[in-house]
Amino acid sequence: MRNQTDTIAYWSQQATQKCSGKLVARIEYWKQLYNYAPVIIFDDGTYLIAMSDDEGNDAGALHTSDENFPIIPTI
């Protein structure tokens, strides 16, 4: 069994590997259970969708590092 540090390192590496080099083509909103989630769609057709939890129970917001655009909200 992995400890938390190993788990964080593993998932950070996996996410970096899957997303590196891709360009954001657009951002859309997709309907989830009750709300609409922001979806980042890459130029190769793959996407990231903000979910409220690991089980995908509903939409989640994306927080940014841009002080003039701090959040991409659920709708």
Your description of this structure?
- The protein has one helix at 4-19; strands at residues 24-31, 36-42, 47-49, 62-63, 71-72.
- With 75 residues, the protein is an alpha+beta fold.
- The protein is globular and about 40 Å long.
- It has a domain at 22-72.
- Helices cover 21% and strands 29% of the residues.
- The strands form two sheets. The chain has a three-stranded antiparallel beta sheet with strand order 1-2-3, with no helix packed on it. The chain has a two-stranded antiparallel sheet with strand order 4-5.
- The protein is built from one helix and five strands.
Identify the notable features of this structure and list them briefly.
alpha+beta, 1 helix, 75 residues, two-stranded antiparallel sheet, 3-stranded antiparallel β-sheet, 5 strands, single chain
Mean pLDDT: 95
Oligomer: single chain
- Taken as a percent bin, the fraction of beta residues is 25-35%
Order of helices and strands: HEEEEE
